[in-house]
Every structure is written in C-alpha cells, then in structure tokens.
Amino acid sequence: MSTSLIELKNVTMKFGGVTALGDVSFDVKEKEILGLIGPNGAGKTTVFNVITGVYQITSGEIIFDGKSLAGVKRYKITKRGVARTFQNIRLWGDMTALENVMTAADTHKKSGLVSGLFGFPISRREEKRDKARAQELLDFIGIGEYSDRLAKNLPYGVQRRLEIARAMGAEPKLLLLDEPAAGFNPAEKVELAATIRKIRDAGYTVLLIEHDMSLVMKVSDRVVVLDFGQKIADDSPRKVQDDPRVIEAYLGVPEDAS
C-alpha cells in the first residue's frame, strides 16, 4: 500500500462564527491523483489555503512528508515540496513563458542576489540549469513552442498550462491544481486529463479541485467530497458517483422525498 504524503487530521478552520472546515480528515498517498470536489462553498479552496499556509488552522493537524505544517511560513512550505496553481491565472504577463517557469526555481537556489549581480560561477551554473529545466517542463506540458512568447500574449489555454509548468518548476512533491480546466473547451479538457495523468506517472502526487465531474472521475484514483465544510465521501470515483450523500449534495432532495 502506498505511503501517505500528506494527512489532514480533524482539521477545523473557522472565520469568526463561520466554520469553513469542520473536523475534516483525509490523506493523499504518494503518486496518487486525489480529486477534491463539492458544491460551491464546500470548503475546497480553503483546504488548499490551509495546506499552503495562507491560513493557520483553528484546530487539528496537517502532516506533510512526515512533518507537521503547524506555524510553518508559506515560503518554507513551498521549499518543503508543495506547489499550487490558482483559480484565477497569476502569471507574470511581461515575462516570457520560459522566464515564468524559471522564477519557480528561486525556491531552491543556493546563490544569492550578490552572486547574480556579479555573475559568480555558481549563479551562472544555476541559471543555465534552471533555463534547461524550464524548457524541459514546457515541453513536458506540451507548450514548448511558446517558450519565448510573453505570457500576456499567450492563448488562454496555454496560459493555464503554463501555470502548471511553473508550479512544477518549484520541484514539488505535492502539486495542488485549483480548477485547471476552467474555461477549457471539450478538446482541451481531454488533453488536460492526459497531461494530469502524465504528471502522476512522472512521479508527482496531485491534489485536484475541479468542477468538471467528468474530468475528475476520469483522472482521479480516489475522490474526496466536501459539503458545507464537512467530508461526506472518500472512495473510488465509481463508488463516489453512486453515493446518495454526494447525489443529494449536488442535486438536492426533491420536496416530496420521504
């Protein structure tokens, strides 16, 4: 059985009197694609935010790669091996696709600002390595031909894929994808599904938030369902689709139901 890379144990996140997450527990195993779904307001993005240190949880525990994330600053969580994309595209518009991916490598650089300014050998070696790695990732994601194009001039679908490549540039153990198919047409979603599986097969662990149920069920090894900040299901895609609690959460209960 695969080892858990990250575990959420009885995680609660409160904002004043509002409970965004209530006693939520689940894990993501190494080299697994875990789909995290639920209706709007279910708490999915809050899960991403507590994992990445945007919010400090009210209670509970988050264990990543055997160590607690309690009180760990956001940049240190990234250095430990967690990277994410966002619902809204957050690229550096006036930088090329290649440069955008290269920025992610700063997380692990050993040379400092002075080394870069004076062109010390270690800085030149790291820049050469980072450039080669960035191009490799762009090719891997299928957008290598756009490496020299400014991000703001790229087609929407390419920008979405560029965000994934940039997140991978941080050399994460866990990759958090927040609605990567938003705005995609059916053909692009098919390509994205293949890309996500390719990422998993390359050794990454993926936690995926996505509203497109067909995509989630197609690519996920396992699916966790949230509703009003509570976990209501954690099982294989097939079993989750047939779970009465999940059907009720998404479709509601008819008024004449007993």
Structure write-up:
- It is a single chain.
- The chain is α/β, with parallel strands linked by helices and 258 residues long.
- The chain has 2 domains: 1-81 and 172-253, P-loop containing nucleotide triphosphate hydrolases (Rossmann fold); 95-166, no CATH class.
- It is built from 10 helices and 10 strands.
- The protein has helices at residues 44-51, 74-80, 97-104, 113-117, 121-141, 156-168, 186-201, 213-219, 237-241, 244-251, and strands at residues 4-15, 18-29, 33-37, 59-64, 67-68, 82-84, 174-178, 205-209, 222-227, 230-235.
- Helix 3 packs across helix 5, helix 3 runs parallel beside helix 6 and helix 5 crosses helix 6 (156-168).
- The chain is globular.
Q: Tell me the fraction of residues in β-strands, as a range.
A: 15-25%
> Biggest sheet: strands side by side, in what order?
6-7-8-3-9-10
Helix content: 25-40%
Number of distinct helices: 10
Q: Note poorly predicted spans.
A: 254-258
What series of H and E elements makes up the topology?
EEEHEEHEHHHHEHEHEEHH
Largest sheet: 6 strands, mixed
Q: Mean of the pLDDT scores?
A: 91
CATH H-tier superfamily of the largest domain: P-loop containing nucleotide triphosphate hydrolases
Q: Which structural class do the helices and strands define?
A: alpha/beta
According to CATH, what is the class of the largest domain? Answer: Alpha Beta
The radius of gyration computed from the alpha-carbon positions, rounded to a whole number of angstroms, is: 19 Å
Shape: globular
